[in-house]
Amino acid sequence: MLGARINHGGNFCGHDPEFPKFELARPANKGKGGLPPIITTLMARLPQFFFMPESILPLRDVNKNTERGGRERSERQLRSEAREACTVVLAAILKRTDLFSLRVGIPKDDGFHCLALSVIINDTGLARRRVERAVNYLSRANLIESVQPRKLRTDGKGKLVYSGLPAIRTVSKHLFTLFGLDKALKIEQGKATGRLKEKAAQTGKSIKQLASFALIVSTMAKSKSKKAKTLFPDEGYMRAFNQRAAELLAQGLSAGAARAQAELELKPKFSVFA
Q1: Which pLDDT value is given to residue 112?
Q2: Is-contact 197 21, C-beta < 8 A?
Q3: Which residues contact 261 (CB under 8 A, 6 or more apart)?
Q4: Are 81 and 11 in contact (CB under 8 A)?
Q5: How far is CA 244 from CA 62, 258, 265, in A?
Q6: What is the pLDDT, as a whole number, of residue 88?
């Protein structure tokens, strides 16, 4: 008979709130020939959410979203192990994000190849169920948008059945805004557009073809669910909050004290809290 599991610190999923792990199992390539600097910069700032959940309020409060009938899922904020998983999974998603379209996958000459969830799982090194929960949190917080395409195929009995294809995931521009990179994103996407125009002139192809907007799917299932209401608070407040909290942390305040002081100073200045 197997003995009881022994927890030497943290949780059985491998999470230790005192020593969170944000590194990817398959790190992103940086520097020359690697990911765009704006992507690596955003990835480096993501751990701020673990220590200061207010930096991404929609994700912190994702369990407070109301269900049908006005009932709330929970009054509790995301636990530390969920914040750690969301941080790592979001980094893995950004690693595979096309800067021009903000879609997750690989643009190729024959179309845009969406990635199976297994690729993100391998990049993170986390358990599959933990990654699935993190992706669900990120989708409900409107940080990423997922659409599940399907295609018709013939099964072993000759019947036509639908089979699922890799989900089409898109990263929200709001994520860049929350970490003060919205202007940088516009500049980088403008540069990407310029490069595509030059290449289009050289190859005789359209920008649409070069950007690989034609997805590798046969049939896309249209979502019947209503679009979730945007949960983002005033973006100007979030930028100011992140900047002020970082300044207070640099002055030696604890994370909790920095959050409280930043909120105290800034909330009266923004109409969203009026």
Answers
A1: 72
A2: no
A3: 244, 248, 253
A4: yes
A5: 24, 8, 9
A6: 96
Torsion 72-77-79-83 (CA) sign: positive
Q: Say which residues have a Cβ less than 8 Å from residue 108's Cβ, sequence separation at least 6.
A: 212
- Specify which residues 154 forms β-bridges with: 160
Torsion region of 112: left, alpha or beta (phi above 0 gives left; psi -120 to 50 gives alpha): beta
Angle at 230 between CA 131 and CA 69, to 5 degrees: 85
pLDDT band for position 205 (cuts 50, 70, 90): low
Q: Please tell me the distance from the alpha carbon of residue 246 to that of residue 78, in angstroms, as a whole number.
A: 22
> Hunting for tokens 């190849």 — which residue is that?
113
CA distance 26 to 86: 16
Q: Which helix (H) or strand (E) holds 202?
A: helix 182-203
* pLDDT at residue 9 tops 50: no
* pLDDT for 264: 82
Give the list of residues 6+ apart from residue 114 with CB closer than 8 angstroms, or none.
103, 104, 105, 149, 165, 166, 167, 168, 169, 215, 216, 217
Contact 137, 58 (CB under 8 A): no
Which residues have CB under 8 Å from 17's CB, separation 6+?
Answer: 10, 80, 81
User: pTM of the entire structure?
Assistant: 0.67
Q: At what angle do helices 117-124 and 80-95 cross, to 10 degrees?
A: 110
Q: Rounded mean pLDDT of 159-176?
A: 80
Q: Is the model's pLDDT at 116 over the cut of 60?
A: yes
Residue 33 CA, distance from chain mean position: 23
